[in-house]
């Protein structure tokens, strides 16, 4: 009964009309992650239903606070977040194009925390799957992090890298028009290509051979 009441209090705070009260809800969630991690883990799907609303809150202060809390929660809860990983990745990436520096910075911290503390195979899958929905700075930030994940995942699960990360590279190399209007797009694509080449060696060119000629040529230019 006590746990049920505590969760209800959390939900009420997170859905309150006043933004200050919603921020109290974020603070309470963070406290419960520290004091009662099992309670949070056992109810993570329902809790995330409410918490994800605050990660996309129309109030910038609430949104920033929620993203900052998320980065700390990822470090504390780790694998307990697996049931909500798809929504977590979506919530983070949706904020990477924010022009608000505080929100953007908090989203980057959450992105870094997910790579540092969550299962790297699962994270690589979800970020790769998300790429087709991304644009702008979010696309650049996630591509750069995929390079880091490739190096860590390939020795353990080469088939995951081939199935999920390679199509991301082919998509970039096959685009006549860069998906982002930024000089940085070449830098992050080159970084991803080189990370894949370091991990896969000659196998990368073998896989590229089945791609259109312009992809093969662009890959050769980078390498």
UniProtKB/TrEMBL annotation:
Any GO molecular function: microtubule binding
Protein name, per record: TGRM2 protein
Protein's organism: Oxyruncus cristatus
GO biological process entries: microtubule cytoskeleton organization
One annotated Gene Ontology cellular component of this protein: cytoplasmic microtubule
Cited InterPro entries: ARM-like (IPR011989), ARM-type_fold (IPR016024)
Superkingdom per UniProt: Eukaryota
């Amino acid at each position: 009964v006590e746990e049920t009441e505590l969760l209800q209090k959390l939900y009420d705070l997170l859905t309150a009309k006043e933004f200050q009260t919603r921020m109290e809800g974020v603070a309470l969630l963070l406290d419960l992650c520290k004091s009662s991690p099992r309670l949070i883990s056992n109810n993570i799907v329902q809790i995330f239903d409410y918490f994800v609303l605050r990660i996309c809150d129309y109030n910038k202060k609430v949104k920033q606070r929620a993203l900052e809390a998320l980065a700390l929660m990822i470090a504390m809860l780790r694998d307990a977040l697996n049931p909500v990983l798809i929504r977590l990745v979506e919530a983070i990436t949706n904020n990477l194009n924010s022009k608000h520096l505080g929100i953007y910075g908090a989203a980057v911290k959450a992105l870094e925390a997910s790579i540092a503390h969550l299962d790297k195979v699962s994270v690589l899958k979800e970020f790769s799957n998300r790429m087709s929905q991304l644009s702008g700075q979010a696309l650049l930030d996630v591509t750069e992090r995929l390079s880091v994940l490739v190096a860590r995942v390939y020795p353990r699960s080469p088939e995951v890298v081939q199935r999920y990360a390679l199509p991301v590279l082919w998509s970039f190399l096959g685009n006549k028009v860069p998906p982002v209007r930024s000089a940085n797009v070449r830098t992050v694509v080159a970084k991803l290509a080189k990370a894949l080449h370091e991990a896969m060696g000659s196998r990368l060119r073998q896989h590229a051979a089945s791609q259109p000629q312009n992809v093969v040529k662009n890959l050769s230019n980078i390498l």
